[in-house]
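Feature request, filed as a ticket because there's no other form

It would be nice if the structure record came with a short human-readable summary line next to the tokens. Right now we just get the raw output. Example of a typical job, pasted below so the devs can see what we mean:
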Amino acid sequence: MKKLLSRTWDLFSSNIFAVVLIALLAAVSLLGTVIPQKEASETYFRLYGEVFYRLFSSLGLTNLYASPFFYIILALLGLSLFACSYNRLMTLLKGKGDIYRWGSFFSHLSVLIIYLGAVYGNLAGFSGYDQIEKGKELTAPGGIFSVRLNDFNAKFDAAGRPLTYTSDLSVMENGQEVLRKTISVNDPLAYNGLKFYQSSYGLNGILEITGHGGKTERLPIYKGSCATYTGTGQMFHIEELFPDLHFLHGMAVAVYEPTKAVAFLIAHDDRSSENVGWLAAGKPVRWGKYNLKLASAVEYTGLQVKRDPGVRVVYLGFLFLTVGVGIMLYVKH
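Raw output as currently delivered:
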């Protein structure tokens, strides 16, 4: 038993074992970058098809950072960092107290502290995504306060590419505004331990479909969604949903004017698909036996909401790293 424990300890305190675990962690992180994480099932169907979607889902590749495999690698890496740091500390305590060697120890210890801070933040913290339409409120986790989207602004270049987009947010408590801030991608709103980051933006709309029999259905839509007219089962895929559309030199260019929203629809069934074309807000279009109209469109902003109690532990780790590197650079060996 002692021999087994000794070999296990030698394995975990091995630099080679630590490097292998770090390489595995990097490979998993790279895979998580290539494959979109925590998206709706329709997104994976569209990108990879049903077979690969089911394969990715069964292997946990659509939510890698919460998979058992990822946590096992993190746990093994943590044990390895602890074993390496402990062995180095015991060697230093038995030595003659060379200050230079302590610099190396503090540098290695910092990696363990940063790791523990990241794990603690992941386990005790919170990260989520939500959307707010203009003029509406989002209840924050815990229900103590809410966040209201007062306004949204976006600027585009001459080719229609977004340059900047910002959201004017208010923190509401008991119906009263207690804080107001305009956020951008790298400038979040922070309140009560939570941070609200500008993540995305877009439009939600209402597609009005009237069939041959006169029955009208109002269906919520967004870019990439599919609206199904229940009367016949006819499906309309929302390929694009722009706040406005100008045509410059034959190219479609988006301009942010939500009252002039346009949508590009593709009709499809089990046998075929056909381009319906562009729908301008409020202007009906006849396609086959259907009257289609983009009845309304409203702006929304996508917010990444985070709480990370481990960030101070991570800062402590960087402090140890700074001390360790400083000792190695400025203390004579």
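Something like this underneath would help us a lot:
The helical segments are 2-12, 15-34, 41-58, 68-94, 99-124, 311-330.
Residues 1-82 form one domain.
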